[in-house]
Amino acid sequence: MKYIFLFLLVPCITIGQSIGNEVEQLFQKKEYVKAVTILKSHINSNPQDIEALELLGDAYGHQEKWDDAITQYKLLVQKDNANANFHYKYGGSLGMKALSANKFKALTLIGDIKEEFHAAVNLDPNHIEARWALVELYMQLPGIVGGSKKKSLQFAEELQVISPVDGYLAKGYIFEYDDKPQLAKKNYIKAIEIGGSLTCFEKLTNLYKNENQPQKAIQNIEKARDKFQRNALHYQIGKVSADYNVQLDKGEKCLKTYIENYTVKDGVPLQWAYYRLAQIFKHKNDKKSALIWIDKALAFNSDFDFALNFRSQVLEM
User: Given 110, 113, 233, 308, which is the most exposed site by the fewest CB atoms within 10 A?
Assistant: First the structure.
């Protein structure tokens, strides 16, 4: 099982001005161990504080401590069985536990996972994330243990009523998983037309890459770049160019633009942009330039395995 759960791990913090602000800041800095210590101390004195219990589960979830997260979310469900989000988080933590467990253990969890997600959608007619989880769950489970494309499409239709964009993205996911790329493409394009978010563009780009259509992938990324004006999309164009050995001049230009305008917010570290440039120059049979850029990557990070292996390849040119 390789389904994905879209956790809502940072709910509105209302557990008290002082501790609430402190926990929120720790979450923003990803200091989850400290958050756990503070929350456990608070809960010892305030065992009925629902918000604190949820935050503690979230802090465990961020650390991928699924057994601890399961304990917290199960407690929340017991305290408030009518809360859809608690069922969703409990089901999600069980799902993540299943992903990390052996196949036999994973199979024993499937029933509970389904039960919790179904409880979430029954309690909240507009719960988007739980429906997404069910779309993926039913699509990826083998039929012998309850997988069903029909049920997956049913929840995609429900999503479309609540959020047309999510509905088209869900259908695109189903058809892509079912190896029907043309139907997947049709739905992803509809999602772009209606919503036009960066996620919509990314889904279509990934489909083109999976179908070995790098030219179309680059074209789609360019449309997203022109709409959103994000420097990170320059890197994505360069990456496709380097990986597929296409539009090398454009890839080189985009990567250099990415480097020139780089900030930490762009996400992908500079060492990767240097590495991609080295790939492009290797494709161009320019050994000297390839070595310059791969050495820049290694100067940035001497333990960069991809760069170390690639440098050996360049030297053999």
Answer: 308
Angstrom distance (rounded) from CA 46 to CA 309: 55
Cβ 139 vs Cβ 2: under 8 Å = no
Same domain, 224 and 316: yes
Give the DSSP letter string of 238-268.
Answer: HHHHHHHT-SHHHHHHHHHHHHHT--GGG-S
Length of the chain: 317
Give the end of a domain, one of 193, 211, 229. Answer: 211
Q: State the Cα angle at 176 between 165 and 280, rounded to 5°.
A: 100
Q: Please list the rounded mean pLDDT of every run of 10 residues in the chain (317 residues).
A: 44 52 85 93 90 91 93 96 95 88 83 94 94 92 77 95 96 96 97 94 97 98 96 98 97 97 94 97 96 95 92 92
Dihedral sign computed on CA atoms, order 309, 315, 316, 317: positive
Residues 248 and 311 in one domain: yes
Domain's final residue, options 211, 234, 264: 211
Residue 129: inside a domain, yes or no? Answer: no
Q: Are 112 and 119 in contact (CB under 8 A)?
A: no
| Domain enclosing residue 31, as ranges | 1-124
Give yes or no for a contact between 217 and 205, defined as CB atoms under 8 angstroms apart.
yes
Least Cα distance to 244 among 286, 300, 270, 205 occurs for 205
For residue 44, count CB atoms less than 10 angstroms from its CB and return exposed for 0-12, middle for 13-18, buried for 19 or more.
Answer: exposed
Residues 249 and 186 in one domain: no
Tokens linked to 286? 């320019």
The total number of structural domains that make up the chain = 3
CB atoms within 10 A of CB 48: 8
**Residue that is written with structure tokens 């039913």 in the block:** 138
Cα 26 to Cα 62: distance, rounded to the nearest angstrom: 12
